[in-house]
């Protein structure tokens, strides 16, 4: 039932409640990673537990090392699905922990690589690529506004449920020796403000308040976080790789909210709230790797360094709360791939320590050290139906994130422990819509070689014709000379020795 009142009957708690509502609408807890940071990217990258920084030569390079795009010698499009299925077990009688079904995430991933050498004659090999992912329920992002005291997972659930966009350009600067790449990850940021005018007649204790007047401003822009990488092939079967991704955060700062409540004809109560929105944070990431290839077997070892110590909350939250100091971490990855005929068998292992510190206080960010075991299979074949002109690739991988039990001791005595298995699967279909630039280069070189041989034969033929003409001219001259000498002798003159010769 709607309640109306005079100025003297207007309770100030409605003003405070309205300001609080505006603050809750505009301020959210930061998301801390995307789904690729948790599970990896691409069927090869996920099946080798991320150990591909030095050997990547597919669209997986968009995430791991953009220099690897320079090894993609055919234009292609990839369609994929990534599913994550965590199974957390939280002991200790705590309440409010997200259900496992709420932590499950599925993403459709579409990637494309365009070899620029198929479009123009360039002095170097270059490929441009991009990838866009969207949740399988077609949502763009899921953002939760939770107090730090609520139990929330750092790498699963809402923190990874968002659209991700990656792009890059890879170039082979020294043939068969050095590749470099640049790229990035783009998200929207900016600032915003809202003004709400609420009359006493708009107030209600049972229904949502509908302001009599509202004004909203949003100034947004694309925030670009760059990445770069390099791959060096110092020896025929040895590759070295290194990459860097800059930290990125999506924020709307400031996000001002003003609530005005007219009192009488000339007065008004006004509540102004400063807030800021920080909906995503990802740390600086450095990667380095070494791979060795021999008799169809590729073995790679990688290490990563993630600067989680720069983790922070939005300004209003940090000003009112003690933020736990996250730790920088070093991750370790190992993987292998064996190629025989059209089949590629892959496996990997990774150790990823948790950046979340012990939290005896009020905060409850949940994360554990992870041991990631993975395996996968890749196939490349010619379309038996003849519909597609170029080879087709299929890939599939599975992962098990084994999380060591972690105990959280709290000052309030409500201790709890966490353990988990988190399962993930990745499946992809890659269609090439241009032939291999490398093969075309080989064909071009063979064609040029044949043309050169033809030119040589034509030159030799012309020289032989010239020699034959000169020989015929010399023969004709000699014949005429002999005829002239024979005609100049007197009739009956005896032959001399010279004539005999």
Features:
elongated; two-stranded parallel ribbon; disordered N terminus; Porin; 19% helix; 501 residues; alpha+beta; single chain
Would you kindly provide a written description of the structure presented here, covering whatever features stand out?
Helix content is 19%, strand content 45%. Strands 1-2-3-5-6-7-8-11-12-13-14-16-17-18 form a 14-stranded antiparallel β-barrel. The chain has helices at 12-26, 35-39, 43-47, 61-64, 100-103, 315-320, 437-487, 497-500, and strands at 76-91, 105-115, 125-135, 152-153, 164-174, 178-197, 213-235, 238-245, 248-263, 267-282, 285-294, 297-306, 329-340, 343-352, 365-366, 370-381, 392-408, 416-432. The protein contains eight helices and 18 strands. It is of the alpha+beta class and 501 residues long. It is elongated. It has one domain (8-435): Porin (Beta Barrel). Residues 1-31 and 497-501 have low confidence and may be disordered.
Question: How would you concisely characterize the structure shown here?
Answer:
By secondary structure, this protein is of the alpha+beta class. The chain contains eight helices and 18 strands.
SSE string: HHHHEHEEEEEEEEEEEHEEEEEEHH
Give me the secondary-structure category.
Answer: alpha+beta
The CATH superfamily name is Outer membrane protein transport protein (OMPP1/FadL/TodX)
Mean pLDDT: 81
* Beta content: 35-45%
CATH hierarchy: architecture: Beta Barrel
Q: How does the major sheet shape up?
A: 14 strands, antiparallel, barrel
Distance between the termini: 143 Å
Approximate shape: elongated
What radius of gyration results from the CA coordinates?
Answer: 37 Å
CATH topology: Porin
Major beta sheet, strand line-up: 1-2-3-5-6-7-8-11-12-13-14-16-17-18
In the residues, how many domains can be counted? 1
CATH class: Mainly Beta
User: Which regions have little confidence, pLDDT < 50, spanning 5+ residues?
Assistant: 1-31, 497-501
Q: Number of DSSP helices?
A: 8
Portion of residues within helices: 10-25%
Strand tally is 18
């Amino acid at each position: 039932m709607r309640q109306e009142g005079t100025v003297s009957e207007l309770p100030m708690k409605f003003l405070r409640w309205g300001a609080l509502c505006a603050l809750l609408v505009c301020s959210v807890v930061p998301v801390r990673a995307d789904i690729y940071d948790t599970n990896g990217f691409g069927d090869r990258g996920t099946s080798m537990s991320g150990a591909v920084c030095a050997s990547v030569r597919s669209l997986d390079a968009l995430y791991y090392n953009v220099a690897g795009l320079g090894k993609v010698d055919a234009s292609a499009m990839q369609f994929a699905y990534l599913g994550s299925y965590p199974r957390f077990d939280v002991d200790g009688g705590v309440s409010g922990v997200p259900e496992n079904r709420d932590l499950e995430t599925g993403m459709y991933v579409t990637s494309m690589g365009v070899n620029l050498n198929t479009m123009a004659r360039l002095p170097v090999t270059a490929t441009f690529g991009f990838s866009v992912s969207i949740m399988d329920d077609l949502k763009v992002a899921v953002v939760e506004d939770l107090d730090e005291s609520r139990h929330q997972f750092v790498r699963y659930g809402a923190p990874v449920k968002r659209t991700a966009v990656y792009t890059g350009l890879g170039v082979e600067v020294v043939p068969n020796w050095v590749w470099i790449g640049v790229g990035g990850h783009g998200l929207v940021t900016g600032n915003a403000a809202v003004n709400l005018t609420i009359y006493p007649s708009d107030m209600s204790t049972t229904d949502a308040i509908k302001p009599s007047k509202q004004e909203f401003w949003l100034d947004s822009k694309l925030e670009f976080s760059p990445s770069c990488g390099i791959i060096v092939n110092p020896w025929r079967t040895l590759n070295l790789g290194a990459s860097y991704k800059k930290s990125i955060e999506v924020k709307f700062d400031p996000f001002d909210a003003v609530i005005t409540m007219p009192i009488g004809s000339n007065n008004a109560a006004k509540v102004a709230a400063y807030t800021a929105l920080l909906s995503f944070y990802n740390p600086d990431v450095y990667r380095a790797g070494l791979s060795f290839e021999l008799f169809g077997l590729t073995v790679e070892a990688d290490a990563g360094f993630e600067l989680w110590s720069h983790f922070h909350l939005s300004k209003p939250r940090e000003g009112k709360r003690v933020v736990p100091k996250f730790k920088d971490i070093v991750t370790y990855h190992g993987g292998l791939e064996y190629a025989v005929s059209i089949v590629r068998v892959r496996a990997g292992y990774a150790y990823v320590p948790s950046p979340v510190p012990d939290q005896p206080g009020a905060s409850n960010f949940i994360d554990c050290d992870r041991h990631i075991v993975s395996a996968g299979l890749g196939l490349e074949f010619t379309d038996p139906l003849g519909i597609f002109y170029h080879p087709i690739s299929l890939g599939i991988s599975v992962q098990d994130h084994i999380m060591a039990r972690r105990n959280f001791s709290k000052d309030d005595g409500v201790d709890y422990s966490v353990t988990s298995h988190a399962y993930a699967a990745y499946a992809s279909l890659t269609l090439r819509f241009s032939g291999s630039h490398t093969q075309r280069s080989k064909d071009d070189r063979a064609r040029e070689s044949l043309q050169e041989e033809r030119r040589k034969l034509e030159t030799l033929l012309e020289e032989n014709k010239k020699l034959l003409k000169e020989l015929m001219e010399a023969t004709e001259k000699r014949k005429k000379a002999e005829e002239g000498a024979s005609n100049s002798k007197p009739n009956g003159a005896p032959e001399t020795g010279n004539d005999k010769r």
